[in-house]
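It is worth pausing here to work through a concrete case rather than discussing structure prediction in the abstract. The textbook approach is simple: state the sequence, then state the predicted structure, then interpret. We follow exactly that order.
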Amino acid sequence: MYIKRNISWNIIFKYAWRNVIFFTLWAAFIFSLYYFLNWRFLDLPFEPLGVIGIAVSFYIGFKNAQSYDRFWEGRKIWGGIINSSRTWANNVLSFVVNDKDAQRILIYRHLAWITALRVQLRQPSSFSITENRSVEKMFDRHGERNPVCSRLDAFLDPEEDADLENRKNVATHLIKNQGQHLKKLLQEEKITEFDKQVFHNNLEELYNLQGKCERIKNTPFPRQYAYFSTIFTWIFVLLLPFGLLSIFEAEINELRSVLHQELFLALMIPFSVLISWIFITMEKIGSNSEDPFEGRINDVPMTALCRTIEIDLRDMLDEGNLPSKVEPKDNILY
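Step two, the predicted structure:
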């Protein structure tokens, strides 16, 4: 999640440079055919292009609104995970009163659960977006998109950690282990049946939150909206130079006294690049918000949220030497 109020032009350039170069070459190519080869038939009336531009704008606006809803739902889910995590730790400390080891195991296993969930959600899928190499290199340098699940051994005993290596859904299995541990504590009369029911209500809520995350992760943004939004935008930006030719040619005809008419006509190149960049950027904003758990610039900062939970829960255990908060990298909080 980008945390600075104004986005760095360095990051904007990383996303935009290839498209800007293409738009410049394309507009210059159309201008050269029109002016130097005298292909006057290339100038298209701008009115139909204007209608296409308005339609594309509405389509992109709808897509971006729905994409943001997916991001915001993901953030609300992780807000629920934070609250349920604190509730879980409070229940452990309140109900398991005479067994410090059990308290630590139950809370640390929960920390392993949020870590496993974060890692699972960050694994790429068949419909994950891929950026240009300069952007991908930035994410690779930060090392937070697809972290290896290497911290589970810090929260679990070696036997349980080894058992999880062959599990298909580690996060699901960890909550199951919590339930088995509660059953053992009940048999040892360290908690009551009522305590166990409260714990299981808490575990049910954690399963629900995990399932909501997996629903967003495993359900792609409807491709008919995502794909055709891209297609329509590119159709518009590719036709744009043809329409701008007629606009600037009409201005020249009205202003006969304009000197260096060829330079005036060439202004269609930067204007075409600017308008094309604006439309493509609006379209890409929606695309980058479709999947909020990929660990990219606009995604839910799960690493930072997991660290917040870890600090809170270990502090509730009265531990010292707590980890520090996760710091942003290039103004991106992961």
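Step three, interpretation. The first helix runs from residue 9 to 35. The CA atoms of residues 222 and 290 lie 10 Å apart.
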